[in-house]
Amino acid sequence: MVKFLLKRPIAVTMTFVSILVLGIASLTKLPVSLMPDIDIPKITVHAQYPNHSAQELEQTVAKPLRQQLMQVAHLADIKSESCDGSCIIELDFEYGSDIDFVFIEVNEKIDRAINNLPREIQRPRVIKASATDIPVFYLNLTLKNQSETSIKSNDLFPVTQEFTELSNFSSQVIQKRIEQLQEVAMVDVSGQVFPELLIVPDNKKIEALQIKLADIEQAIRANDIDLGNLIIRDGQYQYNIRFESTLRTLKDIENIYFKIDDRLLQLKDIAQVIQHPAKRQGMVTANGKDAITMAVIKQSDAQMRDLKLRINKLIEHFQNDYPNIDFEISRNQTLLLDYSISNLQQSLILGGFLAFLLMFFFLKDLRSPFLIGITIPASLVISLLCFYIAGISINIISLSGLILGVGMMIDNSIIVIDNISQHRERGKNIWQACADGTNEVFRPLLS
């Protein structure tokens, strides 16, 4: 094989240059990630049905979905959890299952179950877990001038009204703006504070009218009715009818009517309704301040540098539009990637320099070190072309493999060049020495 190639040096040179050009072109298109894109045999189905109880979601949403999803192939375990407003179904599959086909099958089962779900519910989301779901970085939002006067939702975590507004603003505006970027797969928000409504009765008016607190509670319950769904089948048609009279806003509660001694009153006449921060289950701080943190997860095939440039540009835009909010990036994975790539470059430079010294002192030939100096970068570029063809990203695992491969390449090149030099000393020409010297060590080096 080596003799056949050496007889056609022009064709070999043109082929080598073409592959080298393709490798350089593919270098700009390779995705960069911290970890390789390895699918985890787990799929999560998330259904949202706001303003409905957990019991109703279990009967009208979770149960029909489970009946369909239990038919998915290679299913090892299924778990579901329902709470007010949403339900989550977790599906664990056998190891070795093709998660892409399983993902398609789960979506097909959900499409079949749609007819048995309430008509106003949004289509449940199907989430496929992967090793690349580790956040690229976290974006922290803090208020520059936090008010010292705070409304306390409990004794542990004081909450300001401004921070409650920041929580709502972060989920309604900032999160959606970031998720619109092509390189972003998802944004997970933590540290939010949600509002709740607090009813403060006027004791003097209540005593004067001889109204009991139980009467106020009964009036609120009577106006917050949710009778659930009624399914009516008419031949081939099916209708979902819903009866409800729920309280959703502050004005809905203020305008509640109830009758006391032939007098028709509204709740706002005898009580004050205040929007109050709900009790916090935890908190996030940044630079000693309450913060909202957003975990940014990138698409598996996205370029890390493109995401970094777009995020920095978007943060500059946020800082100009919202001067009262501080935006800070923390736990940045790109720093770790830059460090790994710099390690690879240092290893290449140090390895090439040591190889040059070894070849210079032992073979006393200046051409051999320069040959290695050309071969190693060319081999790396061709390897990156293979990465692009095979769909492999640049990550810590692949970079570690490249570093190991460079070390083996230097060792093997020293052996091959030394063996070719011995054939040259026996009086053979350059072509014959290259063919015989390479054929002698090709099988041992390959093994």
Query: Spatial order of the strands in the main sheet?
Result: 2-3-1-4
Low-confidence regions: 148-156
Count of DSSP-assigned helices: 14
Q: Indicate the structural class.
A: alpha+beta
Query: What is the average of the pLDDT values?
Result: 78
Largest sheet: 4 strands, antiparallel
**What would you call the shape?**
elongated
> Beta fraction of the residues?
15-25%
Distance between the termini: 17 Å
Amount of helix: 40-55%
How many E-type strands?
Answer: 18
Give the radius of gyration.
34 Å
List the helices and strands and how they pair.
Blueprint: H1 2-6, H2 9-27, E1 39-48, H3 54-69, E2 75-83, E3 86-93, H4 99-113, E4 125-130, E5 137-143, E6 151-152, E7 158-159, H5 161-179, E8 184-190, E9 195-201, H6 203-209, H7 213-223, E10 225-234, E11 237-245, H8 250-254, E12 257-260, E13 263-266, H9 267-270, E14 271-277, E15 285-286, E16 289-290, E17 292-298, H10 304-321, E18 325-330, H11 333-362, H12 367-390, H13 396-425, H14 430-446
Antiparallel strand pairs: 1-3, 1-4, 2-3, 5-17, 5-18, 6-7, 8-17, 9-14, 10-11, 12-13, 15-16
Helix pairs in contact: 2-12, 3-4, 11-12, 11-13, 12-13, 13-14
Written description of the protein model:
By secondary structure, the protein is an alpha+beta fold. 49% of the residues lie in helices and 24% in strands. It has 14 helices and 18 strands. It has helices at 2-6, 9-27, 54-69, 99-113, 161-179, 203-209, 213-223, 250-254, 267-270, 304-321, 333-362, 367-390, 396-425, 430-446; strands at residues 39-48, 75-83, 86-93, 125-130, 137-143, 151-152, 158-159, 184-190, 195-201, 225-234, 237-245, 257-260, 263-266, 271-277, 285-286, 289-290, 292-298, 325-330. Strands 2-3-1-4 form a four-stranded antiparallel sheet, with helices on one face. The two termini are 17 Å apart.
